[in-house]
Write a structure and sequence with these properties.
The structure holds 2 protein chains of 2 kinds. By secondary structure, chain A is an all-alpha fold. Chain A is built from 9 helices and no strands. Chain A has one domain. By secondary structure, chain B is an all-alpha fold. In chain B, 66% of the residues lie in helices and 2% in strands. In chain B, strands 1-2 form a two-stranded antiparallel ribbon. In chain B, helix 1 runs parallel beside helix 7, helix 3 crosses helix 4 and helix 3 packs antiparallel against helix 7. The chains are: A mainly alpha, B mainly alpha. At the A-B interface, helix 2, helix 4, helix 7 and helix 9 of A face helix 2, helix 4 and helix 8 of B.
Chain lengths: 192, 197
């Protein structure tokens, strides 16, 4: 039981990293990875929403969609859950912690269209995870996302001073860097 | 801003190509382009959703309240995505298995929501269809380009047919995740060179 959940966690965090091997959440990965500080905040916000979304999507699917045989409404219901969850979380944080709101605030609305969240909910259903499995899966995916984002931002801060050939400036060199990171993460494949 | 109908169609293919110029909807672009078949299927599915949602949203553009428009767009898009998902599952099980959750994930493809917000909500139905057709074609062509490069280098074939002879040792890395980033990086850099001229 513990072993299985630990395996799910490690697999989602490094072996099948959401960003680098499933390509989920590429937009924030390329957009918000210019500074380490914002990368950490974005990662924290995503992990937070992911965990709540994993719990909510699992409950909705198992206790509402599956018993009524309306699994085909999965896409519509999941995206609505995520959108409203993000709204609620944003309002809650705004009310309770001003400092947290300041560091996460601007990233929260962006998360609605982050495919990593919806992808996580869909993977959870596809792989028939239990609620506990899903929570570990979400935590792992969130840690993996944060890890990839922070590593990438560290490299990109250094790249600012590098002499990059003109056509490769901006997005192309970022993609190349991500390619190298993905190569490095492939080394984790033997871990499990 | 008033383009002719022909321009509305052609801008998506080259000048404002969603994959190569605007870099929208990168997740599916990188994830499914391991083989040309998958890339083509993804392109066609996305085009279908894009055109249909453009039609509906342009027809409803005067009825949707401004404050909740994004939520309305997402519901419309999600409906068509579900239709495409069920259709592919019923007719092409292999492709559905290969693409996995990436068909349902068309819902959050920023290209579709972007066109709904930036174009279909402001223009007539006819123009929105042309825009959807052009953007869809541009997206599909972009996917075909990237997946051709990856399949050719990673497998020595295109559409499953061996193109390069047996002397070629395939670069396995190109069909694996890192290859997607590297191929895309070179293609975007190539576009920068072409645009400079």
């Amino acid at each position: 039981m513990i072993k299985q959940n630990l395996l799910i966690f490690i697999s989602a965090a490094v072996v099948n990293n959401f960003v680098l091997s499933y390509f989920l959440g590429i937009c924030p990965f390329l957009g918000v990875s210019k500074k380490t500080e914002s990368a950490v905040s974005m990662g924290a916000a995503v992990t937070f929403v992911m965990t709540i979304a994993a719990i909510a999507s699992n409950l909705i699917y198992n206790y509402f969609l599956a018993p009524f045989n309306i699994g085909y409404l999965m896409n519509v219901s999941f995206i609505l859950i995520i959108a409203s969850l993000v709204q609620v979380v944003e309002m809650f944080i705004k009310k309770t912690s001003k400092t947290l709101y300041k560091s996460l605030g601007i990233y929260l609305p962006l998360i609605t269209t982050n495919c990593a969240i919806l992808g996580l909910a869909l993977f959870g259903v596809l792989r028939e995870y239990t609620l506990l499995n899903n929570i570990f899966f979400a935590l792992g995916a969130g840690v993996g996302f944060t890890l990839a984002l922070v590593l990438m931002s560290g490299i990109r801060e250094e790249l600012e001073f590098a002499d990059v050939p003109k056509p490769f400036k901006g997005v192309p060199i970022a993609l190349m860097t991500a390619g190298c990171l993905a190569l490095a993460f492939m080394g984790f494949a033997g871990l499990i | 801003m008033s383009n002719s109908p022909v321009q509305e169609f052609t801008k998506g293919i080259w000048k404002e190509n969603p994959v190569l110029i605007q870099l929208l909807g990168m997740c599916p672009v990188l994830a499914v382009t391991g083989t040309v078949v998958n890339g083509l299927a993804m392109g066609l599915a996305t085009s279908f959703v894009l055109i249909c949602s453009n039609i509906i949203i342009s027809l409803l553009r005067n009825f949707i309240p401004k404050q909740v428009r994004i939520a309305c767009y997402i519901v419309v898009i999600a409906t068509f995505v579900t239709m495409a998902d069920i259709f592919i599952k019923a007719n092409f099980m292999d492709i559905s298995k290969a693409l996995g959750p990436f068909i349902p994930l068309i819902v959050v493809n920023c290209l579709i929501l972007g066109r709904a917000e930036a174009f279909a909500s402001k223009h007539s139905c006819f123009k929105s269809i042309l825009d959807g057709l052009g953007m869809g074609a541009g997206f599909t062509l972009g996917l075909i380009l990237i997946s051709s490069v990856r399949e050719l280098l990673g497998n020595g074939s295109i559409l499953g047919m061996s193109i390069i002879g047996s002397w070629f040792k395939p670069w396995l890395i190109m069909v694996l995740p890192p290859g997607a980033f590297i191929a895309m990086g070179f293609i975007v850099a190539g576009m920068h060179v072409i645009k400079e001229k």
